[in-house]
Specification:
Largest sheet: 9 strands, mixed
CATH class of the largest domain: Alpha Beta
Number of strands: 9
CATH superfamily of the largest domain: Periplasmic binding protein-like II
Radius of gyration: 18 Å
Length: about 230
């Protein structure tokens, strides 16, 4: 049986861990999961680390493909997530139906939990640019609570330390008591599609490809949905 190493964007941990357990029971293959932000995993790869399977955002996989670091024909889109507005269960849902309503909600909120863009997570990095475009950078700086991960963002909301949270939907779904109020209104939102591929350096390419197939099988759709993702 093969031993696989998988580098995976950490926002996907809930679904990937569950599907990996099913895969190992069914196939006997051993799978070691290495979760991190896309930025952190890219830094590891740039420093010379590798894995049998990479599950990263599409632009990150595109770069690896361009560098010929992937096995030809091994790519597959896995799941899609979006930046969500998060509130505590039982709290009134904020008005985020339009860009104008979303801006009012941000201005009226007392505290807003956000992913720290310095950590390299896609939501945190995107939101910095969005707030600049909306003219809200100074406002968010006053009330923003920077967190080390999207999970921590949702936890601050559940604890009542933040009125709102902004992070990837997959992170919100993994925290009990956190509720997705909705995605950012068009055209402000950003969907992130995650893609899996087999490393060109993998010594277990068949098992690695089977692992990707297990993540993307039609029967996995509900697992992904429960984790806050959509299957493409």
């Amino acid at each position: 049986m093969a031993k696989l190493k998988v580098m995976c964007a950490r926002s996907m941990h809930k679904a990937v861990e569950a599907l990996t357990r099913d895969f190992t029971v069914r196939t006997g293959h051993d799978v070691a999961l290495d979760f991190g932000t896309v930025g952190a995993l890219q830094a590891k790869i740039a420093a010379g680390e590798s894995a049998d399977v990479m599950i990263l955002s599409v632009p990150a996989i595109d770069k690896l493909d361009k560098d010929r670091a992937l096995a030809p024909g091994s790519r597959a889109d896995v799941a899609r997530t979006f930046i969500a507005v998060c509130v505590r269960s039982g709290a009134p849902l904020p008005d985020i139906a339009t860009p104008e309503a979303f801006e009012r909600t941000l201005r009226n909120a007392s505290t807003i939990a956000l992913s720290d863009p310095g950590v390299g997570g896609s939501a945190g990095v995107y939101l910095v640019g969005l707030f600049e475009r909306m003219g809200l950078s100074a406002e968010i700086a006053k009330k923003g609570m920077l967190q080390s991960s999207g999970v921590e963002v949702a936890k601050r909301v559940v604890e009542g330390k933040a009125e709102l949270g902004l992070t990837l939907s997959g992170k919100v779904a993994s925290v009990q008591g956190a509720v997705i109020a909705g995605p950012l209104p068009a055209p402000l939102g950003q969907d992130t599609t995650y893609c899996a591929a087999v490393s060109a350096a993998s010594a277990a390419k068949d098992a690695a490809q089977a692992f990707i197939a297990a993540l993307t099988a039609p029967a996995t759709r509900e697992t992904w949905k429960a984790a806050g993702f959509e299957r493409p």
